[in-house]
Amino acid sequence: MSALRPEAGGEAGGAAPDWRSWTDQHIPATERQRGGAAVWPRGRRGLIGDPLGPVLHLHDGASEVFYFVAGRCRLEIGNSEAFFGPADFVLIPPEVPHNLWNAADEDLLVFWIVAPNVVNNKWRTTGFPPGAMDKRAPRGRVGPGVDLPSDKNILGRLLTLGESPHRARTAESQETIIYVTEGEANVTVARLTGKLRRNEFVHVPIRTPYSIAAAGAHAAALVFAAPAG
Question: Which domains does the chain have, with CATH numbers?
Answer without folding.
Answer: 16-141 (2.60.120.10)
